[in-house]
Amino acid sequence: MTSVAPAATERPGRPARTDWKLTPRTGLSVMRAEVRKGLLSQLAHPVGHIIMLVISTVLYLGMQYVMGQGTLRRELIPETLVAISGYWFLHYGSLVMVADLVEEKRGGTYSQSHMSPAPPWVFMLGRLVTASLMGLMVAVVATLVPMLVTGVTIPLKAAALVPYALVVVNVLAFTFVLAAIAVSSPMVGALHSLFTSLVILLNGSMMPLALYPDWLAVVARFLPTTLGVEATTKVLFDGKSLGDIWSDGTLPWLLAYTFALVLFGGWLFSRNHRRAVRDGRLGQY
């Protein structure tokens, strides 16, 4: 007689979580994980960052020697240092953001993040924080080292924090625009090089905006950082107050420019991401 052993009791599997909701706490948790991942990835290869820091410092000092025809014009250095800090924050922050996104798109790992219930823009904000921290590191060093080498200082005024904070915001908005382009096109690298080259030429990093021809100054103000640098230098070096730069139109234009750039970046990312999902190109170009 054959006996049949009783079947082993099967443990029920844990049901999948379906109650996840986006709240400030859960959103910050997702962003924190994304920032940690990004920083670990960036800091795993410190040599590249060190080379960038050296290049950024030498490039600025070299430009000043060229503009001064073999000498440093110390009266122009403080204003150009304000501009170059904004440029390096823009250049390196956006470079980290774009390069990381393109690499993950080509490797197919970008699409995996969309398996999370968190909306895609939360991950993108986490990436933006990582890019900002790396850009800030380069910007601070690339500003402080020339100050020590040349012996010049930038006066500190609390009122200047307002326009410079708007510089930071429009840099982050422009970085988000480039990231939105990277979602749909691998040619974003060429656009990044083009726009950042225009910024370093025209935002006051080589010489103050007041020394440009009028028509070129108008063109320069359409680029990221230029309006903010102009407003900041007016407060720091021309003795103007926030009321003064409001009444002369600089601060209102800066606010409008920054707001428009933020809206454009959000709209472009939403559009390109929606198209990538529809066409099945989240993991490829």
TrEMBL record:
Keyword terms: Membrane, Transmembrane, Transmembrane helix
Main location: membrane
Record membrane topology: Multi-pass membrane protein
Record GO cellular component, one term: membrane
Annotated GO MF terms: ABC-type transporter activity
KW Repeat (keyword) present: no
Subcellular location(s) per record: Membrane
InterPro entries for the chain: ABC2_TM, Nod_factor_ABC_transporter
Residues of the ABC-2 type transporter transmembrane domain: 43-237
Residue stretches spanning the membrane: 39-61, 81-102, 122-149, 161-183, 190-212, 251-269
Pfam families xref list: ABC2_membrane (PF01061)
UniProt name for this protein: ABC transporter
